[in-house]
Design a protein that fits this description.
- By secondary structure, the protein is of the alpha+beta class.
- Helix content is 38%, strand content 22%.
- The chain has helices spanning 3-6, 20-30, 49-55, 65-74, 94-104, 123-135, 152-165, 194-206; strands at 34-39, 42-48, 108-113, 116-122, 142-146, 169-175, 184-189, 211-214.
- The protein starts with a helix and ends with a strand.
- The strands form 3 sheets. The protein has a 4-stranded antiparallel β-sheet. A two-stranded antiparallel sheet has the order 1-2. It has a two-stranded antiparallel ribbon with strand order 3-4.
């Protein structure tokens, strides 16, 4: 999967001449944590909610409210934005993008193609478009956890039972602690028929494979 498959394309941007107070209002209105700064079609920086808060005078200042508001009205995003921006290509893999963001400790990556901002990739994009479908969050169906089912043999046996019962899989993944002998197999089944789910669970048990029926999330 590529960045262009999950990135947000309707990106709200601001020019560097935007007053800080206006930038804060835009963030509050849209519930954004960050805004790309674009001048003449070129990405020149990025400003975050935390940066804008730090740009405000300290609560311990001797300035009056009127003086503080005057200073904030005069300050622009240009004075607070981070000019060194980590960007990613829309043709990069989502794995490479995640690694890039983690290595640089950033929560979002502006997506740039031919020097033009074409999107932005945030943690929400990963959650809603990759992680949620993978885990079956807010997806109809039923869930079974096959204990230590991450081995090729147990995966094959489980899939054989599903095929015979005519039940498709919406999501599948393995998970387990580092000290576990084998990882558990998580299956989000494309059925609401609890009788079938119970049958699958019982058939796995007869083969000596432990499994649990879980409530969908």
């Amino acid at each position: 999967m590529l960045v262009r498959d999950i990135m947000t394309t309707n990106v709200v941007t601001i020019p560097s001449s935007t007053p800080i107070m206006d930038a804060r209002k835009i963030m509050e209105a849209h519930k954004f944590e960050r805004l790309p700064v674009v001048d003449k079609g070129k990405l020149v920086g990025i400003v975050t909610k935390n940066v804008l808060q730090r740009a405000a005078p300290s609560a311990a200042t001797s300035l009056s409210v009127w003086e503080i508001n005057y200073l904030l009205a005069k300050m622009t995003v240009r004075e607070a934005m981070r000019k060194s921006v980590i960007t990613v290509s829309p043709d990069a893999s989502v794995e490479a993008a995640a690694t890039l963001a983690q290595n640089h400790g950033v929560g979002s990556l502006p997506v740039v193609e031919n020097d033009k901002l074409v999107g932005i990739l945030t943690t929400n994009d990963y959650f809603y478009k990759i992680l949620n479908p993978l885990l079956g969050i807010n997806v109809s169906g039923q869930r079974i956890v096959v204990r230590e089912g991450g081995t090729p043999d147990r995966i094959c046996k489980t899939m054989q039972i599903l095929q015979e019962e005519g039940v498709a899989v919406k999501a599948i993944y393995t998970s387990g602690t580092e000290d576990a002998a084998e990882k558990d197999l998580f299956l989000h089944l494309d059925t609401e028929d609890m009788k079938k789910v119970t049958t699958i669970n019982e058939r796995l048990g007869k083969m000596g494979i432990r499994s649990d029926v879980r409530e969908p999330v």
